[in-house]
Amino acid sequence: MSTAWTSRYAQRAKNVRSSAIRELLKITQRPEIISFGGGLPAPDVFPVERFREACSKVLEKHGRLALQYGPTEGYEPLREMIARHTARYGVKAKPEHVLITSGSQQALDLIGKLLINPGDRVLVEAPTYLGALQAFNVYGAEYVCVPSDNDGLRTDLLEAPLRSGPKFMYVLPNFQNPGGTTLAEGRRHELVLLADRYGIPIIEDDPYGQLRYEGEHLTPLIVLDRENLRRDFSYVKGNVIYLSTFSKTLAPGLRLGWIVAPPDVIAKLVQLKQGADLHTSTFGQMVAYEVARDNYLDEHIKLIRRVYGERRNVMLEALEQYFPPEVTWTRPQGGLFLWVTLPEGMDSHQLFEAAIKENVAFVPGDSFYAANGYAEEGRRHLRLNFSNAQPDQIREGIRRLSVAIKNQWAKLHPGYDRPVDQHVFD
Ligand SMILES: Cc1ncc(COP(=O)(O)O)c(C=O)c1O
To answer: Residue 234: pLDDT above 80?
Structure first.
């Protein structure tokens, strides 16, 4: 509906469309639907009691400070804690290299604000995180897409796109959203070398790296860049900006994330953040600090790994049991998602309609591609979240989805003489 305001919208507002996922999620909120759609953590592992105690403690001990304006850079003890925490994953930053943001999503927005002029190209994976595209679109980003496979971004295809001069690369090395894939060790080295050779910086978005259920932790790109190439452990230089968040380890409702970057970049981001929200909630930061302290965060992450690891296993087993052999999927070593590939001819949007009739939901894959050229490819995929539903719901949801797939397949192949998966569907 057009109003007196519509003609006054700025061009950047016209660049924005509502996220397909948010629209779909509205449908999937019906209680009878088992949803693998959202990227929601499991509410049953939220440490509610610890939060309650932390809120009381913060108000009792530091009430006046907690309710006051605070520094844009963030609450100092929390910055120090984040620096210590990320060091355990290899990122040995000092507190002054850490900027606390209102979720990683704000970090993406600030980075867009800092780096993107209208028409600038950003190199992204195909597929990539939809929220990053939404953040960058506002600033008029264009995209160079590079495909990924089971080992993450195809670094063998990078040189020509890098030669075309993108402003920066946006990469998700661990348990990618939506693919569930992890950038292999060799490709990490190759990526930072190529980034250095062509002078193209990297935004490394890592909300899931702490949630690994099998295999060894792989070195973050920011570490490879600084230690191998710059021999600069002071984090003054560097070709990589690193993002992470408490959303997947403590609670997304906190809206707390962070950026690790060289001090000059932090200083500029601070100016931009002042214009956005002055600072992230002082109370929220102090509560998060109080919750996470005394090693609680690390202990809690162990619990999450156990719970999500089990849910991942249940989903993989159910897929194996119910899905026809024509359908394939990734086997994530961590994170929240896996990525399903449908046989040629099947369409994830038609499947979505059929799945809703069976009371199960997912996100069709085309939402996760930056360029129109991938529309057809995108419609052969779906993203499934395995963190949010309980194990028995996961099994039942995958069974329902297999029925929807069977029905779609039967429509596409009338008279198909081999049932898609006789042992399951009969
Ligand atoms: C890859 C990626 N980056 C950033 C975010 C945003 O996280 P936050 O809740 O910290 O804003 C998400 C959330 O799902 C994500 O998957």
So the answer is: no
pTM exceeds 0.70 = yes
At residue 168, the 3 state secondary structure works out as strand
Give, for ligand 1, the residue of 129, 130, 206, 244 to mutate: max count of ligand atoms closer than 8 Å to Cβ: 129
Question: Any idea which residue has 């060799």 for tokens?
Answer: 186
Residue tagged 């570490």 (tokens):
223
| Tokens standing for residue 40 | 């929601």
- The number of the ligand 1 atom at minimal distance from the alpha carbon of 102 is 11
As given in the structure block, the two tokens for residue 103 are: 């979720």
Q: What ranges in 293-341 are assigned the alpha helix state H?
A: 296-322
Q: Is 203 within 8 Å of 169 (Cβ atoms)?
A: yes
Asked if the peptide bond before residue 178 counts as cis, ω within 30 degrees of 0, the response is yes
Q: Please choose, from the candidates 366, 363, 394, 398, the residue with its C-alpha nearest in 3D space to the C-alpha of residue 379.
A: 366
The mean pLDDT of the chain is: 92
pLDDT at position 235? 62
Evaluated on CA atoms 240, 246, 249, 252, the torsion sign reads negative
d(CA 200, CA 169): 7
Residue 337 forms beta bridges with which residues? 385
- Report residue 2: phi and psi, to 5°: -95, 135
Specify the amino acid at residue 272: L
Sign for the CA dihedral angle at 260, 266, 272, 274 comes to positive
CA of 269 relative to ligand 1 center, distance in Å: 18
Instruction: Tell which atom from ligand 1 comes closest to the C-alpha of 257.
Output: 10
């520094």: which residue's tokens?
Answer: 71
Tell me which residue has tokens 């490709």.
187
- Which residue type is seen at 150? N
Rounded to whole angstroms, the Cα distance separating 106 from 81 reads 20
Q: Which two tokens stand for residue 225?
A: 């860049």
What are the pLDDT digits (tens) for 173-230? 999 999 999 999 999 999 999 999 999 999 999 999 999 999 999 999 999 998 877 6
